[in-house]
Amino acid sequence: MAKKPATKLPSAPATKRAIAVQPNLHQEGHETQKYGEIVKLPNGLSEDVCKKSVALLNQCLADTITLRDMYKKHHWQVVGPTFNQLHLMYDQHYEGQVLLVDILAERVQLLGGISLAMAADIAEVTRIPRPPRGREPAAVQIRRLAEAHELIIVAAREAASAVDEAGDDGSNDVFVSNVLRTNELQVWFLTEHLVAASPVAT
Ligand SMILES: [Fe+2]
Predict the structure, then answer these.
(1) C-alpha 8 to ligand 1 mean position (Å)
(2) Which residues contact 128 (CB under 8 A, 6 or more apart)?
(3) According to the model, what pLDDT value does residue 202 have?
(4) Measured at the alpha carbon of residue 113, what is the angle toward residues 112 and 117, in degrees to the nearest 5?
(5) How far is the CA of 193 from the centre of ligand 1 (A)?
(6) Which CATH number do you get for residue 86?
(7) Per residue in 62-72, pLDDT tens?
(8) Backbone angles phi, psi at 195, to 5 degrees
(9) What range does the domain containing 175 cover?
(10) Cα(9)–Cα(128) distance, integer angstroms
(11) Which pLDDT score is estimated for 122?
């Protein structure tokens, strides 16, 4: 028996195929969710509770991003007899802050909020004083870092109580187990460099 010829499906004209795979780089900029708005998710928390937690988390996020970046600045600019030790410790602490940034930002998103992200927005929101662009002595670097840590620690304790009272246990855990514990530990490592016998003390 003669073999039936295979049915040929009609193909799209060449120009249409080309259009379908051509990236469209002329996308209009528009927001699908405004900063401050909450998308209600089925997490058993009211919109009001999520909104308040998101505001506290975003403040902590802005301060944490600033502290993270201050660690990198000081990692690059440190000088003196303890250069290597501080250079390495600053980077270890930087990595710890990087982890916190992601935990905080994703906590904001999973509560239905919008996390802060860009440097210009962080600069407007953070409460940590801006250091000079230039280089400072190691002891001053450490003092600036310790003050930034303390600001975050005090705020994290207050935020932990506030979200706990509102019933947001997950955010309470982030403020206590992640933010508070990491910052307390880093303060210890940092400030032990400022004892009188230390070569970095002034
Ligand atoms: Fe480095």
Answers:
(1) 61
(2) 63, 66, 67, 70, 147, 148, 151
(3) 61
(4) 135
(5) 20
(6) 1.20.1260.10
(7) 999 999 999 99
(8) -70, 160
(9) 46-194
(10) 65
(11) 98
Distance (Å) from CA 115 to ligand 1 centroid: 27
Please report the sign of the dihedral spanned by the C-alpha atoms of residue 192, residue 197, residue 199, residue 200. Answer: positive
State which H helix or E strand residue 60 sits in: helix 47-77
CA of 145 to the centre of ligand 1 (A): 18
CB 35 within 8 A of CB 62: no
Q: Helices 83-110 and 138-165: crossing angle, nearest 10°?
A: 20
Q: Which residues contact 164 (CB under 8 A, 6 or more apart)?
A: 172
Does residue 85 lie within any of the structural domains?
yes
Task: Report phi then psi at 71, rounded to 5.
Answer: -65, -40
Ranges of residues in the chain whose predicted pLDDT is under 50:
none
Whose CA is closest to 55, among 5, 132, 145, 116?
116
Answer whether residue 199 is part of any domain.
Answer: no
What is the pLDDT at residue 119? Answer: 98
- The predicted structure's pLDDT at residue 4: 63
Residue type at 7? T
